[in-house]
Amino acid sequence: MERYLCLDIGDKRIGVAVSDPFNSYSLPVQTYHRKNLKTDLGAIEGLVKEKCVTCLVCGLPVNFDGTPSEQTKKAQFFIERLKEKLAVNIVCVDERCSTVEAEEVLIEQGKSRQERKSYVDALAAATILQGYLNQIKK
Question: Which of 9, 48, 107, 135 has its CA 20 to 30 A from that of 85?
Answer without folding.
Answer: 135
